[in-house]
UniProtKB/TrEMBL annotation, chain A:
<keyword id="KW-1278">Translocase</keyword>
<dbReference type="GO" id="GO:0048038">
    <property type="term" value="F:quinone binding"/>
</dbReference>
<keyword id="KW-0874">Quinone</keyword>
<keyword id="KW-1003">Cell membrane</keyword>
<comment type="similarity">
    <text>Belongs to the complex I subunit 3 family.</text>
</comment>
<dbReference type="GO" id="GO:0008137">
    <property type="term" value="F:NADH dehydrogenase (ubiquinone) activity"/>
</dbReference>
<dbReference type="GO" id="GO:0005886">
    <property type="term" value="C:plasma membrane"/>
</dbReference>
<comment type="function">
    <text>NDH-1 shuttles electrons from NADH, via FMN and iron-sulfur (Fe-S) centers, to quinones in the respiratory chain. The immediate electron acceptor for the enzyme in this species is believed to be a menaquinone. Couples the redox reaction to proton translocation (for every two electrons transferred, four hydrogen ions are translocated across the cytoplasmic membrane), and thus conserves the redox energy in a proton gradient.</text>
</comment>
<dbReference type="InterPro" id="IPR000440">
    <property type="entry name" value="NADH_UbQ/plastoQ_OxRdtase_su3"/>
</dbReference>
Automatic annotation (TrEMBL), chain B:
<feature type="transmembrane region" description="Helical">
    <location>
        <begin position="71"/>
        <end position="91"/>
    </location>
</feature>
<keyword id="KW-0813">Transport</keyword>
<keyword id="KW-0520">NAD</keyword>
<feature type="transmembrane region" description="Helical">
    <location>
        <begin position="34"/>
        <end position="56"/>
    </location>
</feature>
<dbReference type="GO" id="GO:0048038">
    <property type="term" value="F:quinone binding"/>
</dbReference>
<comment type="function">
    <text>NDH-1 shuttles electrons from NADH, via FMN and iron-sulfur (Fe-S) centers, to quinones in the respiratory chain. The immediate electron acceptor for the enzyme in this species is believed to be a menaquinone. Couples the redox reaction to proton translocation (for every two electrons transferred, four hydrogen ions are translocated across the cytoplasmic membrane), and thus conserves the redox energy in a proton gradient.</text>
</comment>
<keyword id="KW-1003">Cell membrane</keyword>
<keyword id="KW-1133">Transmembrane helix</keyword>
<feature type="transmembrane region" description="Helical">
    <location>
        <begin position="324"/>
        <end position="344"/>
    </location>
</feature>
Length: 123, 476, 168
């Protein structure tokens, strides 16, 4: 196995540890500090005072899913920008044109999405 | 990328610009006629451009693509097939009220993917081409969403194709791990430097074959074929049966020639097993079917089995036989599915055998054309299918694959039974009166002319195959 | 240090992957899958492939997991409604997966020498990747946008509800 310079990743690791640690500590702390009342009503699901019924998983609009899929697609598109941005200077104008072609192809798709109202919520 | 590279890639560029044009056109206003016109014209224009290449044209776009005679021939085949599919789609989709326009974008993109695949000589371009093809196919298969079986077919194809892509990728990465190369030439060079293939690379190649086998629908990776064929809209089924499978075969021919895979007994044995299993399973399962699309699905499984016989023969003879078989199979399959598409009505496809009872007396010309297609699938003389099968057998005997040839002959006989059975049903005297909502007769003219042209080609190849043979001889 | 980290990550990865399969509640499976993705990203870093690690976290742990959760909610998978799978099926699955394991382990054994020589230094850095992608592999890069386009049309076409589209 190659031996990368792991020390370079120390800041990221620290960030992760802090993020995780913050969540864990808050969760433990609230448990320890907060008052506990375990009556049946207290443990019930609270839904604006109305008695809750049925399952938490109900059929919902497919539009949420459509938006999520489109988000993934554009997310992947953005991924390609990182290597480009890092090399931006050395790639000169050529790189810029290449990226423009890439983006404009996707813009066509975006235009289509907008025109077809895939992102319109109320219809 | 310089000018001659661009010149060689123009067919792909035309296809992508046609797709973009369609995008704009749909965004501004949906119009089936306009989209159809753009699609057909761009496909024709692309093909005409393609004919401007010399057959000995050879342009390496390193490290990814090679535009050579074989590639150009296959691109031409794909373009023409897509054109035929588009032509017969018009009447098929015009009857339906659902959105019809996106279909053509996806069709063009799928064809683009297949074109990239057949000229690739590198795993990256191969995989990308395959993915463009598959991703377009996912949505094409599920296109008629309101139909009962289409979503089932779409999901099945999505899961299995994604799974097989995973296998392909895993195989590629194992090969890359061993050789450090992803281009076919580099892998071939690596293999010449070693005595026998390292085990890890063997596993990689095996996975590659599993992935390719899924896309080809050879036994034991054939499970999706009947369901997808049945659930997909008929023109899409024709596309899957021809372009998707043919592209993969063309790629396999290129890959195996580059790595000289025919010299390794483990691979030839593997393909022999796949081929024999496909022939028998496909034909035997087809015997009891009553759904025409399923019959054709099983028949396509067995046809891929026949194709593998030619593929296994290797060398230029094998490549020629494979290519000719592909051409004949493309024409026949397109014709058969085209007829199913024209007979389909608004609500369902004409897929049950009973729909064809007495067809000869209702629509004699269609019945004759359909019989011709079926006879060609069975390999009866005077049709393209016969010459193709003859060629495959010659190639098989030339390389002494006796077992394969024997199985092929036995299976041709089994196959004949169910093809004849369909023809017999069409001759049945019992008339069935069916009234479907008829569209303007002009709509049907396109489909009918397309099928007529296909039938003419079928007989022309069956009677005088010399022209096509010398063309194939030139490109290989 | 590196080796210890490797063992730790591998242990975590295998454990959480097993939990994905074995937990009864599909939402828990997804959460374990996120852990698996993170550990794999850690492996990428150990292999000096920083770009892959970042992408893995952003795309998989970030975006794809959202899709997973949506699908689970759409499927309405309750514990009671889970269909009973026959034992033969399970047996077959175990045998197939086991065979794959045997093949992989068998082929990976004793191949260290081969594998090591093929890796170039710094191949996983964002900078190197960008240089390769925008010079040598420019064409695949542009094809990727076509691939994304195809996916986009498919998603919009299949996901958009019927009636609203006939106009425009």
């Amino acid at each position: 196995m190659e031996n990368p310079n792991l020390a370079e990743y120390l800041p990221i690791a620290l960030m992760f540890i802090f993020a995780l640690g913050f969540v864990v500590t808050t969760m433990i702390a609230t448990h320890v500090l907060g008052p506990k009342r375990k009556s049946k009503i207290k443990l019930d699901t609270f839904e604006c005072g109305i008695e809750s019924k049925g399952n938490a998983r109900i059929p919902f609009n497919i539009k949420y899913f459509l938006v999520a899929i489109l988000f993934v697609l554009f997310d992947v598109e953005v991924i390609f920008m990182y290597p480009w941005a890092v090399n931006f200077k050395s790639l000169h104008w050529e790189g810029f044109i290449q990226m423009t072609v890439f983006i404009s192809l996707l813009l066509v798709g975006f235009f289509y999405i907008l025109k077809k109202g895939a992102l319109k919520w109320e219809e | 990328m310089n000018r001659s590279d661009l010149y060689s890639l123009t067919p792909l560029l035309i296809l992508s610009s046609a797709a973009i044009l369609n995008f704009f056109s749909i965004s501004i206003k949906r119009n089936h006629k306009v989209i159809f016109a753009i699609t057909v014209l761009s496909l024709i224009g692309d093909f005409i451009f393609l004919t401007s290449y010399s057959l000995y044209h050879q342009q390496h776009i390193d490290p990814l693509l090679v535009v050579d005679g074989f590639g150009i021939f296959n691109i031409g085949l794909i373009l023409l097939t897509t054109l035929v599919v588009a032509l017969m789609s018009y009447a098929y989709f015009e009857q339906r009220e659902e959105r019809k326009e996106e279909y053509y974008i996806l069709l063009i993109l799928a064809a683009l993917g297949a074109c990239i695949m057949v000229i690739s000589k590198h795993f990256v371009s191969f995989f990308l081409g395959l993915e463009v093809l598959s991703v377009s196919l996912y949505s094409l298969i599920a296109y008629l969403r309101t139909r009962e079986r289409s979503d089932e077919a779409g999901i099945k194809y999505l899961i299995l194709a994604a799974f097989s892509s995973a296998f392909l990728l895993f195989g590629m990465s194992l090969i890359y791990a061993t050789t450090g190369k992803m281009d076919f030439g580099g892998i071939g060079y690596y293999l010449t430097t070693t005595q026998d293939i390292p085990l890890i690379m063997m596993a990689g190649l095996g996975m590659l074959i599993v992935g390719a086998g899924f896309k080809l629908g050879v036994v034991p990776f054939h499970m999706w074929t009947p369901d997808v064929y049945e659930g997909a809209p008929t023109p899409v089924t024709a596309f899957i049966a021809t372009v998707s499978k043919g592209g993969m075969i063309a790629l396999l021919v290129r890959f195996f020639n580059a790595i000289n895979g025919y010299q390794y007994e483990s691979f030839t044995n593997l393909f022999t097993v796949l081929s024999i299993a496909s022939m028998f399973v496909g034909n035997i399962l087809a015997l009891r079917q009553t759904n025409l699309k399923r019959i054709l699905a099983y028949s396509s499984i067995s046809h891929i089995g026949y194709l593998l016989v030619a593929f296994l023969s290797g060398g230029s003879m094998g490549a020629q036989a494979t290519t000719f078989y592909l051409v004949a199979y493309f024409i026949t399959t397109l014709g058969a599915f085209g007829i199913i598409a024209t007979l389909s009505d608004q609500h369902r496809d004409a897929e049950l055998i009973d729909d064809y009872r007495g067809l000869l007396w209702r629509r004699p010309l269609t019945a004759v054309a359909f019989s011709a297609m079926l006879l060609s699938l069975a390999g009866i003389p005077l049709t393209a299918g016969f010459i193709a099968k003859f060629y495959v057998i010659t190639a098989g005997i030339g390389t002494q694959h006796w077992l394969l040839v024997f199985c092929l002959v036995v299976n041709s006989v089994i196959g004949l039974y169910y093809y004849i059975k369909i023809i017999a049903v069409m001759f049945d005297q019992k008339l069935q009166i069916k009234s479907a909502k008829e569209l303007h007769p002009l709509v049907y003219v396109i489909s009918s002319v397309t099928i007529a042209v296909l039938a003419v080609f079928l007989f022309w190849l069956g009677v005088s195959p010399e022209g096509m043979l010398s063309l194939i001889d030139d490109v290989i | 240090m590196t080796l210890n980290l490797f063992y730790f990550l591998s242990f975590l990865a295998v454990l959480s992957a097993l939990m994905v399969v074995f937990s009864k509640n599909p939402v828990y499976s997804v959460l374990y899958l996120i852990i698996t993705f993170f550990t794999i990203a850690g492996h990428y870093i150990l292999l000096d492939a920083q770009f892959l690690a970042v992408v893995h976290v952003i795309v998989y742990a970030g975006a794809i997991m959202v899709l997973f959760l949506y699908v689970i909610m759409l499927l309405n998978l309750n514990r009671e409604s889970e269909p009973h799978k026959s034992n033969i099926l399970k047996f077959a699955a175990v045998i197939c997966a086991g065979l794959l394991l045997v093949v992989l382990v068998g082929s990976l054994k004793g191949t260290e020498a081969i594998v090591q020589q093929s890796g170039k230094a710094g191949i996983g850095y964002v900078k190197t990747l960008g240089e390769v992608m925008f010079k040598e592999f420019l064409l695949p890069f542009e094809i990727t946008s076509i691939l994304l386009l195809a996916a986009m049309v498919g998603a919009v076409m299949l996901g958009k509800s019927e009636k609203t589209n006939d106009t425009i």
